[in-house]
Design brief:
Largest sheet: 6 strands, mixed
Structural class: alpha+beta
Strand order of the largest sheet: 10-11-12-15-16-19
Radius of gyration: 26 Å
Number of strands: 21
Oligomer: single chain
Number of helices: 10
Distance between the termini: 81 Å
Length: 422
């Protein structure tokens, strides 16, 4: 036994002795890089044409380090971090807009119905390039939202860049002055589109939308609904828990809804359906477009991969990563991506900026022109003016090709069923 202990001790000592030079090299290499940073810091402090304080320089360095990771990891100064709050509940003074950071710019995913942004005809896909004449390039989403929000009845000027229909033309750039209002988030709209087909549009996955959804589906059933179209177009996401709860209404047998995978094992988790579901047999079609993001992509991917619904439309936005907020010692914080979402079949939802891969690919793809898209979006909205709750804006007459295809799909399924029953 004694010789074995001596052998093991000698082996451990040998391994440590072998690794020490490499450990020392790694530490020394990191130290040298930090030394370069300090050198640059001192040069800027002493030689730059304008005087800069230490905090701004250090915070800018941290911000640059974090923002280079991806579009969603961000460094938040103390005042910004304190102002971060959950947008999925309550009311706030703002312009009524949902946005994502894309290629360094804030891009409108969707304006919210009956808000200043919608009435000013700000459309999905518009870039907000300035707020009060200050550039928004490479700003965090929290910084952008913080500047757009404020007390109700106060004004904010934004500069919009709109992509032209003809790619060879210049982007249209114009200013819009908006008056902030208290924003109440609407989450559900529904109607019967034929005598037996109901449609529920989920505008956003908020805290209260699951109960609203249950009420909507019950009311549609009372009107004779036998099939359902779930419209997730222009849905920017929201609460993951609400998306999961909706999936559980249609998926049974403990089926996998979505899973997350990060760098370590602790960042892996699964979300599954229950053993039974109240609408596991209800015929279902899901509509998506390139502005469907986050929680809406998780729901569409789960229903598609489990062969529970036919998904129609365009490949979705491709935003589904897990961020966690990590406080720092001085009251600031880092919002860091720690994992990404995957569909039951293992497809990564988060879009890869290099390859373009990601998002949810529909079973049936239908693309719209920019003009069709804008007219359709306007036609989908119910617009109520604050001073006249009865007055509605007349909807433009535009054919919804995607909805039409969904109805055709149900008709084809009915025909195939009749043939198989004979």
């Amino acid at each position: 036994m004694k010789w074995r202990k001596v052998f093991i001790t000698s082996l451990i000592a040998g391994v440590i002795g072998f690794l020490v030079p490499y450990i020392n090299y790694a530490i020394d290499s990191t130290y040298q890089k930090i030394k370069v940073f300090v050198e640059a810091f001192e040069i800027i402090k002493s030689e730059y044409v304008e005087e800069k304080n230490d905090e701004d320089l250090i915070y800018s360095a941290i911000s640059g380090m974090v923002s280079n990771l991806d579009d969603f990891s961000q460094f938040l100064r103390e005042n910004v971090y304190k102002g971060v709050r959950d947008d999925t509940e309550g009311e706030f003074g703002g312009i009524g807009i949902r946005l994502e950071i894309k290629d360094g710019w804030p891009v409108v995913v969707t304006p919210l119905p009956n808000t200043p942004a919608y009435r000013a005809k700000i459309y999905p896909g518009d870039r907000i390039i300035k707020i009060e004449n200050e550039s928004t390039e490479n700003k965090s989403s929290e910084e952008i939202v913080g500047k757009l929000r404020g007390k109700p009845k106060t004004k904010v000027k934004i500069t919009i860049a709109r992509e032209p229909e003809n790619k060879d033309e210049e982007w249209k750039v114009f200013d819009v002055e908006l008056v902030r209002e208290m924003i109440k988030i609407e989450s559900i709209r529904y109607e019967m589109v034929t005598s037996d087909i109901g449609l529920i549009r989920i505008i956003e996955f908020t805290h209260s939308m699951v109960e609203d959804f249950k009420k909507a589906i019950k009311e549609l059933e009372s009107k004779g609904m036998k099939k359902l179209i779930l419209d997730l177009r222009y849905n920017p996401g929201g609460l993951l828990s609400s998306s999961i709860d909706i999936a559980k209404m249609f998926l049974d047998s403990n089926r996998l809804i979505v899973y997350t995978q990060g760098r370590s094992k602790k960042d892996y988790s699964e979300y599954r359906a229950n053993e039974t579901a109240p609408y596991s047999k209800l015929p279902l079609v899901v509509l998506v477009n390139k502005y469907s993001a986050s929680a809406s992509e998780i729901l569409a991917g789960a229903l598609r991969d489990n062969k529970r619904a036919i998904v129609i439309g365009e490949r979705t936005f491709g935003k589904a990563s897990v961020q966690t907020m990590i406080p720092l010692s001085d009251g600031s914080a880092i919002k860091l991506t720690i994992a990404k979402y995957y569909t039951p079949n293992g497809d990564k939802i988060q879009r890869d900026p290099k390859t373009g891969e990601g998002g949810i690919k529909p079973n049936i793809e239908i693309s719209l022109t920019r003009d069709e898209e804008l007219k359709l979006y306007e036609g989908m909205q119910e617009i109520y003016y604050p001073d006249d709750k009865i007055k509605k804006k007349e909807k433009p007459k535009v054919e919804d090709k995607v909805l039409k295809k969904a109805i055709e799909v149900f008709s084809m399924i009915d025909i195939l069923k009749e043939i198989s029953d004979k």
